Amino acid sequence: MKKLIMLAVVCIAMFSARKLNAQKIAYVNMQEIVSDMPESSQADTTMQKYQQQLYQQFQAMQQELQDEASAFVKDSATMTAAVKQVKRGSLQDLNNRIQQFRQSINDDVDKKYKELMQPIIDRAQTAIGAVAKAKGYTYVLNDSEQVKVLIIKPESDNLTAAVKAKLGLK
Q: Where are the alpha helices (DSSP H) in 136-169?
């Protein structure tokens, strides 16, 4: 009987301790917050210009290859075997550079995107932290369209509007 009473006391003590240490959890739609920030549209414009520049460079390289290949085909009848071999090597080198450039484009675009977006994300996270602290939340989860983590989410714990207000967004 003493063991049963002791077990009950321990269970009550653990339950009480859990209640005292209960953490408040909120959520935000980070995607919505970031996309509504004016800096995001500026970053998008900058990204589009950057991608266009890379695409133009890529097109210029492809045009150069096409022009040199056409010239090679046109003039190959009058070329010696040694000259043909040098020209083929030159065409292959140009083609290899184009392939390397194509592969580096994605990495460059990703790097530029992160470079432009990180200050925006940092600003949003700072605002989220300030709002969460002011409202007494310990944890804030991201529940955007890309990252659906919550199945049940009471609207009272949605800090998106409060964060947008803190950032001066509509």
A: 160-166
> Do residues 128 and 28 lie in contact, with contact meaning Cβ atoms separated by under 8 Å?
yes
Q: Average pLDDT per run of 10 along the chain, which is 170 residues long? A: 46 47 86 95 96 96 94 89 92 95 93 96 95 94 81 83 90
pLDDT at 12: 55
> What's the pLDDT at 17?
42
Helix (H) or strand (E) holding 30: helix 30-36
What are the strands, taking DSSP E only, across the chain?
25-28, 139-142
| Residues paired with 70 in a beta bridge | none
Domain chopping of the chain, boundaries: 24-166
The CATH code of domain 24-166 reads 3.30.910.20
Contact 164, 170 (CB under 8 A): yes
| Residue listed under structure tokens 């097109």 | 59
Write out the two tokens for 54: 């890379």
Distance CA 162, CA 132 (A): 9
